[in-house]
Amino acid sequence: MIETRKEEERALLIGVELQQTENFVMSMEELASLAKTAGAVVKGSYTQKREKYDSKTFIGSGKLEEIKLMVEADGIDTVIVNNRLTPRQNVNLEEILGVKVIDRMQLILDIFAMRARSHEGKLQVHLAQLKYMLPRLIGQGIMLSRQAGGIGSRGPGESQLELNRRSIRNQIADIERQLKIVEKNRATIRERRIQSGVFKIGLIGYTNAGKSTIMNALTDKRQYEADELFATLDATTKQVQLSDTFQVTVTDTVGFIQDLPTELISAFKSTLEESMTVDLLLHVIDASDPNHTEQEEVVLTILQELEMLDIPRLALYNKLDKTDDHFTPSQFPHVMLSAKDENAKSHIQMMVLAKIKTMFEPFEIRVPLKDSYTLHDLGRIALIDMRFYEDDVEIIKGYISKKDKWKLEEFENGLY
Ligand SMILES: Nc1nc2c(ncn2[C@@H]2O[C@H](COP(=O)(O)OP(=O)(O)OP(=O)(O)O)[C@@H](O)[C@H]2O)c(=O)[nH]1
Ligand SMILES: [Mg+2]
C-alpha cells in the first residue's frame, strides 16, 4: 500500500441487506450523506444480500477479497459499514482490509461530536463516545482507528486518547455527575417556562427536513441551516409573534434519524426534552425527498417511544418548490409550503393559528369600557376574533385554552 497523506478522506461504504432489513436503499443513501457531512469523499459503495451477518467479519470472506481490491485500487482511507459492528468484527475487518473501519454508530457519534455547541451537548456526546468505546478496548482495533485520525476519532474531550478501562470508567462517572447538575438547572428553566403560560410550539422532523429554515422564517433570524445531516444539535427556543398580540415560543431541536446509536439516545432525549412539554408539535417533512414516507414513519415511531404522540400535531410538508407533481401528503391536517418562499412566514402563521383555534375553546366576555385597557394582556393568551361595543361595555369573542379559561373571569371583573 502506498503511504501518502491526503487532504481528503476517501471512503468506501459497505452495507449488508438481510431479509428483514427495512428501508435498505434509503439507509445506504443516508450513510453517504452522513459520510459527506463528516467530511469524507465517498468513492463507492458495496452491498451484499445475506441470510445473516458473518459473526467474525460481518461480510462474507469472498466479498472481502473483492473489497480489499477496491480499497487498494481507489486509495481508500476509511471503510464505513452501515450497521453496528461487534468489537471483534471491527478488529478483524481492519486487519484484513488494512485500513480504518468504522460503523454507522461511530460516524453519527463523530458528527454529533463536531456539532455539539452547548456545555451539556458536549458532555452528552463525550459520554456516548466513552460508552461506545468501553466494550471495544480489545486488541489493537480501537488503537488502530484512533491513531489513523480523521472520521471516527473526533471528540469533545481532549483526553480521548487515554484508552484504559479504568480511566474511561472514571471519566464516565465524572461526566454523569456533571450532567446531573446541568439537568437540574435546565429543569428549573423549563419549569419557569411552563408556569409562564405562554403557548409553546416544538419543531420536530427528520434531519435536513428544514426545521431551522422554518424557525428562521418565523423569527426573521439566522439559525444555522445547512444541507447537512444534524446541522442542529442543541435546542433553541425563541419568542415568535403569531399575530399582532398572540405570542408563542418556538423550539428548534435535533433532527430524527433511523437507527440512532443507543449510546446517543439519552443525549437525544435530553435535547428533545425541551419539546416534550410543548402544546403543539410542528412535524416538518422534506416533501421532495423520495424517502419522505419512510422518514415520516421513523419520526412517528420515535414520537411514540418518547410518549409524545398525544401532543397535538400539525404536519408541514416543506420544500414544495422541489417536489414533483406526484407528491401526495399522507398526514392530516397538514400544510404544504416552501420555507424559502417569501410568503412562508405569513402562511405558517395563518395555518398555525387556525390549528390552535381548533385546540382552544370559544368564549365571549363583556368588559366595562373603563377596564378595556387590560385587554392587550388577553390578546397574548387568547385568539381574539371580534370586539365591539354596546353602551358602556366592550364585547369580546375569541378562543382560549382550557387551562387559561379561568382567567376570563378576572378580565371581566377588571382584576387582571
Ligand atoms: N429548495 C428548498 N430547500 C429548502 C427549503 N427549506 C429548507 N431547505 C434547505 O434544506 C436544507 C436543510 O435545512 P435545515 O433547515 O438546516 O434542516 P433541519 O431540519 O434544521 O436539519 P437538521 O438540523 O440537520 O436536523 C438547507 O440546505 C435548506 O436551505 C425549501 O422550502 N426549499
Ligand atoms: Mg436544523
Would you mind describing this structure in some detail?
The chain is an alpha/beta fold and 416 residues long. The chain has 3 domains: 9-116 and 136-150, 3-Layer(aba) Sandwich (Rossmann fold); 197-357, 3-Layer(aba) Sandwich (Rossmann fold); 361-412. Helix content is 41%, strand content 21%. It contains 13 helices and 13 strands. It has helices at 24-37, 61-73, 87-97, 104-115, 119-133, 141-148, 165-196, 211-219, 265-276, 292-305, 344-359, 375-381, 406-412, and strands at residues 9-17, 40-49, 78-81, 100-103, 199-205, 236-241, 247-252, 280-286, 313-318, 334-336, 361-368, 382-390, 393-400. The strands form 3 sheets. A 6-stranded mixed β-sheet has the order 6-7-5-8-9-10, sandwiched between helices. Strands 2-1-3-4 form a 4-stranded parallel β-sheet, with helices on both faces. Strands 11-13-12 form a 3-stranded antiparallel β-sheet. A hairpin with a 2-residue loop joins strand 12 (382-390) and strand 13 (393-400). Helix 3 crosses helix 6. The N and C termini lie far apart (78 Å). The model is unreliable at 139-145 and 157-161 (pLDDT under 50). It is found in: Cytoplasm. This is GTPase HflX.
Reading off the top of the CATH hierarchy, the class of the largest domain is best stated as Alpha Beta
Per DSSP, the total helix count is 13
Distance separating the two termini: 78 Å
CATH topology of the largest domain, anyone? Rossmann fold
- Count of the separate structural domains: 3
The CATH architecture of the largest domain comes to 3-Layer(aba) Sandwich
Low-pLDDT windows of residues? 139-145, 157-161
Shape: elongated
Question: What is the total tally of β strands?
Answer: 13
Order of helices and strands: EHEHEHEHHHHEHEEHEHEEHEHEEH
Q: Look at the structure and give the mean pLDDT.
A: 87
Give the cofactors and ligands. Answer: guanosine-5'-triphosphate, magnesium ion
